[in-house]
Amino acid sequence: MPTEIHVPVSETTARPRNWKFCWLLALALLAGTAPAENKPAPPQHPESAGPPAPKPAPAHRERWAAAFHRPVPTSIPDLRAMQDQVRNLVKRLSPAVVEVEVGYGSGSGVVISTDGLVLSAGHVCSRAGRDVRVTFADGKRARGKTLGADADSDTGLIRITDSGPWPCAAMGDLAKTGIGDWVLALGHPGGFDAKRSLVVRLGRIIRLTSDAVQTDCTISPGDSGGPLFDMSGRVIGIHSAISSSLSENLHVPVTEFYTHWDQLLSPKTKPEEKSEAKSETGE
Known about the structure:
By secondary structure, this protein is α+β, with helices and mostly antiparallel strands.
């Protein structure tokens, strides 16, 4: 608040002889105490780098059909119980599985938040800042941008930029996952096709390491970036590579996304990527 200055006057209200000096002094004091109007205030709340990684949902393995805990189903009731659980999971999860078009290529992805975060493969996203066209299982389309990609782990993250909310699936972990577990591989092999439903494959984990999940689920070109679900409906992997046999395929463990989350949200652009981006925009 400006300092209030009282200039003394005589009882007869006559100004003293040094009145000019008094007014100059008052103006100087006022100027020194007045706030600087053109000086911007420092930010009180710096912007966040992005949303934190979602926490893994609980596995609830006790809710799985009993047949999923055995080496093989042993009866017709076992098969029916497995069929019912798979059917319910597919109905619940399909709305969150999308086709992803980046440039002239297409792959798959899975929405993991109502505001439109999408997990996909790094080789599908390529790099940050690319335009994305997303197609849901019901044919609805949306626009998005790649947020980041890591070539070493083959992880990629996309943001749907159109207004939501969007159907989403829960992320999981590998804490209670093991070799022999049944899994579901969903995706859009060959791209979105309105004449057929989302493609679903049931299989099992045949190898599990810290940086790879291998299953006997058959995946094909176009499935890349699609989700691998456990029998609780949690995303535990992302389709990454087709091996020499279509029945032995590799998936990025969901744990790699937790590890590289900050990097995917705020990627460091390499010099060659900057040059490529400029050449595409004509700059």
